[in-house]
Amino acid sequence: MPQPSKPIATLLAALITMFLLTPAGQHVLGADRLTDIDRALEAIADSPFDEPLHLESVEEDDGVQGDIHALMNIPHEALVAALARVETWCEILFLHINVKACVHDADDGQLTLFMGPRRYQDPAVSEQIHFRFRVDHADDDRLTVSLDADRGPHGLRGVSMEVQAVPIDEDTSLLHMHYALRYGRLARTVLAVYFAFRGRELIGFTIAETDEAGDPVYVDGLRGMIERNTVRFYFALKTYFRYPDPDQLQARLEHWFDLTERHPDQLRIRDRDDYLAQKARERQDQEDLQATGGLPEATDPW
Q: Region entry Disordered: which residue ranges (predicted)?
C-alpha cells in the first residue's frame, strides 16, 4: 500500500485525536453522562493516572467515542460561568499544538477551528471545522454544553463534544466530557497507513501488557494517539482555570507546555521556546480572524 503524503496523514491524525478521548481498560461508566456519581468517583479513585481522572472509549468500524470523568478543584459556579460561553472554548482549544486559530460567534452559537501541523501554518491554508455550540443546562445543579460538527476534512464526519459538570462540594466539581467521531473509508485508510509508517513508535499511557522482562508495553496506534491528546486537552482545561484572565495568555501557554513535559515519552511535542513563539504568531492570526469575522485572506501555500 503506498504511503500517503505527510501533510494529509499527519493532519488527519491530528484532527481525529483532537476530538477523541480514549482510555484503557473496561468500559466502566459508559456514555450515560453523570447518572451515577458514586461510580464515577470510584473509577477516578482507581485510575492509574496521577491526575484525578478516569478515561474510557469505544472504537467501532466507522468511528470512535470516548468519555472522561475528572474531579476538579473548581467551584461549580465558576465552571458554569466560563464553560457556558463559546469564547472560553476558543481559549482552551487554542493551547493545543495543532490548533492554528479558533474564532467564535456568540450570537449565532458558532465556533470554527483552524487545524494544521505542529509547525506554524497560515490559517488561510489550514483545514476548518465548523461547530455549533449549545448550552442545555447552566444552573446551580448541572452544566451541560455541547459542540457539534456535521463533517470535517478528508472523510471526517459527525464530530461531537459534550461537557457536563455537577458540584461535589463548595470547592470541587465532577466534570464529564463525551466525544464521538465518525469517519469514512478515506479516513480509515489514511489512519491505517499513518500508524504503519510515521506513527508506529508513538505510545499512549495505558499499559497493554508486560514484556518478558516485566517492563510495561504501552498501547499505540489510534488508541495511543487518542490518549495523548486526551491528556493534552485535560491539561488545557486545567490550565485555563488556573489562568483565566485575558492578559494571562503567556502564563497559560507556559503552564500547559510544562504540564505536558511531565510525560515526555507520550506528550513531548517540540522545544518550549519554539512552541511559545509559534503560539504568539498564531494568537495574532486568531485575533485578526476574530476581528474580520473569521474569514482568512487567501494566500499562496507555496
A: 280-302
Residues shown for the chain? 302
Question: 35 falls in which pLDDT band (50, 70, 90)?
Answer: low
* DSSP code of residue 279: H
Rounded to the nearest angstrom, the gap between the alpha carbon of residue 8 and the centroid of all alpha carbons in its chain is 19
Question: Helix count (H) and strand count (E) of the chain?
Answer: 9, 10
Contact 205, 50 (CB under 8 A): no
Euclidean distance between CA atoms 94 and 8, whole angstroms: 21
Q: How many domains, in total, are found in the chain? A: 1
Domain range holding 251? Answer: 6-291
Per DSSP, 98 falls in state: T
Domain assignment present for residue 88? The answer is yes
Mean pLDDT of 226-242: 87
Q: How confident is the model at residue 88 (pLDDT cuts 50, 70, 90)?
A: very high
Residue 80 lies in a domain: yes
Residue 1 domain-assigned (yes or no): no
Nearest-5° Cα angle at 39, 37 to 42: 110
Determine the 3-state secondary structure of 135 from DSSP: strand
What global pTM score does this model have?
0.84
* Percent of the chain whose predicted confidence (pLDDT) is above 90: 52
